[in-house]
Design brief:
The chain has 639 residues and is α/β, with parallel strands linked by helices. It has 15 helices and 25 strands. Among the domains are: 1-163 and 208-267, no CATH class; 270-348, no CATH class. The chain has helices spanning 87-97, 201-223, 228-237, 241-255, 270-285, 290-297, 299-306, 313-323, 334-341, 345-364, 369-372, 429-433, 437-465, 488-499, 523-531, and strands spanning 3-8, 17-23, 37-39, 44-45, 50-54, 63-72, 75-82, 101-116, 120-123, 126-129, 132-146, 154-157, 263-264, 374-378, 384-392, 408-416, 419-427, 478-479, 515-519, 558-562, 578-581, 590-595, 602-605, 615-627, 633-636. The protein has an eight-stranded mixed beta barrel. Helix 5 (270-285) packs across helix 7 (299-306). The N and C termini lie far apart (95 Å).
Length: 639
Amino acid sequence: MNEFVTIEAAAEGGKPRVQGVAYSGGKMNLPGWKHPVVVDLSGMEIPDSVPLLTNHENRTGSRVGMVAARVEDDALHIEGEIVSNNGQAAGIVEQAEAGADWQLSIGAEVKKSELVKTGTRVVNGQEHAAPFYHVTASVLREVSVVAVGADQGTRMQVAASFTLTGEVPMQDENTRSTPPPAGPVADPDQRAQPGNATPDAGVVAAQAVATERERIAGIQRACAGEFAEIEREAINAGWTVHDTGQRVLTAIRAARPVADVNISVRRDPGPAFERRVLEAALCMRANIGETDLVRHYGDEVMSGASRNRDLSLHQLFIECARLEGVTVPRSFGNETIRAAFSTVSLPGILNNVANKRLLRSFEAQPVIATRLCSEGELNDFKESERYRLTDVGDLEPVAPDGEIKHGGLTEEKATNQLGTFGKIFALTRQMIYNDDLGAFLKVPDGMGARAARKIDQLFFTRLLANPGNLFSTAHKNFRDGTDTALSGESLGLAVQLFLDQVDADGQPINISPKFLLVPTALKMTARELLNSTFYIATGTAEKRRIPTYNALADEDLEVISSPYLSNANYTGASILAWYLFADPAVVDTFEIGYLKGRRTPTVERGETDFDTLGIKFRVYFDLGVREQDFRGMVKFKGE
C-alpha cells in the first residue's frame, strides 16, 4: 500500500488538518523483540482522542496535535488537527507545504502477545510467515510524525490549498520560475477588439520580482539554515520550492541512521508477572539455585527478582495484598495477616516456595534403595501383580526335514503395593510476626529429607525381614557359618555362588554381581578387600607359595555401606551379614513402585481458617517396595 497522509492548510483562523493511514497492518522490526512484530488491529483498544507527537518523544514540546483513529479496511486510519504552532509543528507544516513526504508511526502498549513459531497466520487480512510475534491485545497511546518509517504502508505528503489575495496571478509551484515575456500576451478572444489597453511593463516586472522573492523565501524555509549547499544551488539553478523540499528530505534520510522502528512498545507486566517476581525473589531468599530458577522463571522475571532478593515475610504479605487491591493497615498486625491470606497470591507463592525447598532437600538426600532396586509405576493402591516370562528349553538341532520344535515359557509372579506416607506442617502466626522465613523453610527441608529416607526405610525393612525365605538354601543365594564372615575367601565364595545361579530350565543365567552391600562396621574391610593390590599371609608355619595378586579387584564391585543393616529397630539387623546385588537394570531384585510414576513427594496447602492466623501444608508420598527376583541377590550371614 502507498497510502498518503494529507496535511491541509486551514482556512483563515483555523488549524491545519491531517489525515491518513498510521499503520497498514504489516510486520515491523522492533528493538528488544527477536522476531518481527504484527499488531492485531482487531485487538487494539482505541481511545476517543489520541495525541499527535513527533518521533515518539514524550515531551511537552513534541505534542503537535490531536487525532481520532479508526480501523478501516484492515488498516489504522487517523484524522485530526495540528493545533500547535511551535518550532516542530511549524517545521512539519512548512516542509509539507514544500512537498516533503512524511510518514506516520503508532505508539501502542502491549497487553498480550504470542510467538508464532511455525507456518503462517492471517492477521489484519494479510498472511504472515513465521516466525513473528502476534500482538493480540494492545492500547493505542499516540501517533507520531516521523521522517522515515519501516511500514511502507504509511506515507504523508502535503497537499496544500493556498488562496492568495490581491491582483498578483498565482503561479504553479511545480513550474520552474522564469522571467515574464517581454510583451503582453493577448487573450485570443480579445485580439481583434480595439481599445484594449496594453499592460504596464512596470507592473509585469513587479509581479516577476515578487514571484522570485517568494520562490527564494520558500527555498530558505525548506533548507532552514541547515543545508546551505542545497539552498545555494536551488536559488542559482532556479529550482522550485517543491524540488528543493525533495532534495532536503533526501539529504535528511541519508544523514540519519537506518531506522526500522515505527511503533514504540512497552510491556505491561500485570499482576501475574509481579506474582512470579515475588515468588522468584522468595526462592532466591530461600537459597534455591539460581540456575534452576532462571530455567523455570526466565531472565525477565529473574531480573526483577534480583532487585527484591532481600524480600521479607512482612513485605511479601503487604505486596500480595496490594497486587489484588486488598487494603491493609499502615502497621503490620493481625489485620494485615488476614488481608494477605484472603488473596490468591500469598498461599500460592508460599506453597510453591515450600515445594521447591522440599524437593531440593529430597534430591540432596543420598538414597541407597534407588541404586539397588528397579523403579516401576502403579496405577492404584490395590496389590499389583508383576509377571515375568522365562523361556524354557535350549535350542535344539534342526532335523533334516527342516522342522523346528516349539519352545516354552514359564510364568513367575511377584507383587507390589502402594502405601501413602505424609505429614502436616504450618507457617505459624509467631513465625510471621518474627519475620522468620528461615524457621518456616526448615520444616519443608526436614520433610524432604524424611521423604527420601522413607524409601530406604521401606527397602531395608523388607530386605532384613527376609519375606518368603527370599534368601535361602533352596534359592541357592544364602550361606551361614563362621566361614561366611567377610574376608577374601568368603567374598570369593559369594561371587561363585552368584555366578552359579540358574534359570527355571536349570541353565546358568550368566549375571555378575555389581554391588557389595555391607553394614558400616564392615565398610573399611570391604574396601581393603577390593582395593588392595596384594595380600600378605601371616601366622602359619606351612610353607607354600601365596599369590600376591588381588583377584577380587577385577570383579569391579562397588561398595555400598548402610547403617540400616545393623540398626536394632529393624527385625533381622546384623553387624556381620553382607550382601551381593546385581545391576537392577539387568535383574529386578526389588522394585520401588510410585503412584502413576510420580517419584517425588507432593506438597499441598490447606484452606486458610478464619480463626487461625497462619496456614498449614501437607506433604505426602505414595510408594511401595517389594522383592521381585531372588536370582539377583546373595546373602552371607557372617556367623
